[in-house]
Specification:
The chain contains 4 helices and 5 strands. By secondary structure, it is of the alpha/beta class. The longest helix has 21 residues.
């Protein structure tokens, strides 16, 4: 990013979009390393947003919900997991990658600092930390 920011300044600004996770909005036992790294990304993003605003650079952070991708087939989760250890989707179905991309575009166009896949996630974030 150190090389990109000077170029963005030369061009009069731009957008930086950091992809976090809905887990950054919650305190989840057993997922503390992942969730805390996503919370750190949020803090860095929001601080950078303030630091770079005078340069016309808009920094936003995205909180996607469970997204239908083949991500887990390429991770350690590709190892068979017992049914009771799988991640439940809860009352909301997983999102398509296209839906999440649309939310990101909407967030960029509106200049939002924090882009949530769903409005109900905002309430989760207020309770979680």
């Amino acid at each position: 990013m150190q090389q990109v920011i000077p170029l963005m300044r030369e061009h009069g600004g731009g957008n930086i979009i950091n992809i976090s996770s809905g887990t950054a909005l919650m305190d989840l036992p057993g997922m503390s390393p992942y969730a805390s790294s996503k919370k750190a990304l949020t803090a860095i993003s929001l601080a950078a947003r303030q630091e770079l605003q005078n340069d016309g650079i808009v920094v936003s952070v995205v909180y996607p919900y469970i997204t239908l991708t083949d991500f887990e087939t390429r991770t350690i989760r590709a190892i068979p997991v017992r049914e009771e250890e799988t991640e439940p989707t809860g009352p909301y179905p997983a999102d398509s990658a296209e839906f999440v991309a649309g939310r990101i575009v909407d967030g960029i166009l509106s200049g939002e600092a924090e882009i949530y896949s769903h409005d109900w996630m905002k309430e989760t974030g207020q309770k979680g930390t």
